[in-house]
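INPUT
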Amino acid sequence: MRAVRRPGAYVCGIDAAMDVIGGKWKVLILWALDEKPCRFGELRRSVPGVTEKVLSSHLKELEEDGIVHREEYAEVPPRVEYSLTPRGVALNEALDPLGAWGREHVQPGTPTHSPEGVAVAGSDPL
Amino acid sequence: MRAVRRPGAYVCGIDAAMDVIGGKWKVLILWALDEKPCRFGELRRSVPGVTEKVLSSHLKELEEDGIVHREEYAEVPPRVEYSLTPRGVALNEALDPLGAWGREHVQPGTPTHSPEGVAVAGSDPL
DNA sequence: CGGGATCCGTATGGATACTG
DNA sequence: CAGTATCCATACGGATCCCG
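OUTPUT
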């Protein structure tokens, strides 16, 4: 994963934000968590195609970035719950117009929200 | 670069949008073009650190995605001008809240817009 | 000037097996 | 269940040379 943050500084806020959500599955993770807090296994099912390692890495980074909160319960069947922090909620809101743009301009018919993992069929309209 | 579009389809609009702006320098390019149409050389100067090849690739992809328009003038000193399409303008607008989020949450003090010498004091090309 | 072609290093992500 | 460890593939980005 991103070994370390961009050394110097960001050129702009978008640049900075992109560094946070740059992972391949991050926005999908955020999206799933936007619905409800999730356990690791749930998340894995909600984000089809992601592997444990990558999911784990992404979650760790999102946690470091203050986007998700990780609550660990020291129980016998280990239980961990991930949820969005206020900052994460704000990020998701900021992401909304971008999602609208994507739906409008690149993939008409894309669902608005389907954390269960629905994939639409369709081709590039361009 | 992205050899081909994501095989199946996108899970959501954000997912789709991310595929469009996923390149390392794309948002910076968009940002520069948001100010004014630019020639290749200008762009290269506006996006410090990017190499010709990558800039070229990114521009080509952005063009394929209908984000930028490429106007080629068959003159003796070859001249090409890149500009944002309406779709590109819309994308930039959709990116705005994300930029605001980034400025607020990850890099306080990041400038709002400075496409001229995008280099912020102290910024360091990777 | 505006790139295309080539070669190459690295970061990112994937598969699988294993552990607390 | 919730990860970690290891190995591996490749996409991405960079340097350089070259051409219209």
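end of record. Chain A touches chain B through 53 residues (CB under 8 Å).
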